[in-house]
Amino acid sequence: MINNIAIENELKKSYLDYAMSVIIGRALPDVRDGLKPVHRRSLYAMRELGVFYNRPYVKSARIVGDIIGKFHPHGDTAAYDTIVRMAQDFSMRYPLVDGQGNFGSLDGDSAAAMRYTEARMTRIDREIVGDLEKNTVDFVPNYDSSLVEPSVMPCKIPNLLINGSSGIAVGMATNIPPHNLNEVINGLIALIEDPNITISELMKIITGPDFPTGGLICGRAGIREAYETGKGIVVTRALTHIERSKDSKKESIIVTEIPFQQNKAVLVEKIAHLVKDKKISSIAEVRDESDRHGLRIVLELKKDEIADIVINQLYKMTPMQKSFGIIFLAIVNNKPEVLNLKEILEHFIIHRKSVVYRRTAFELNRAEEKAHILAGLNIAISNLDEVVTMIKAARNPQEAKEGLINRFNLSEIQAQTILDMRLQRLTGLEREKIVSEYNEILIEIESLKTILGDETLIMEIIKEEFLDIRDTYGDDRRTEIVDAADELLPEDLIAPEDMVVTVTHSGYIKRNPVSLYKSQNRGGKGVTGVKNIEEDFVSNLYVASTLDTFLFFTNHGKVFWRKVYQIPLAGRIARGKAIVNLLNLADGERVAAILPVSSLDVENSDKTIMMVTSSGRIKKTDMQEFSRPLRRGKKALTINEGDEIIAAHILNGNSSILLYTQKGMCIHFHEADIRSMGRAAAGVRAIRLVGDDKVVSAIVVSSDQSILTVTENGYGKRSAIDEFRIQKRGGKGVFGIKASERNGYVIDAKQVKDDDEIIVIADSGKMIRMDLSSIRIIGRSTQGVKMINLEEGEKVVGMDSVAKDSSGSMEDDSEESN
Question: Where in the sequence is the domain holding 571, given as residue range(s)?
Answer without folding.
Answer: 488-604
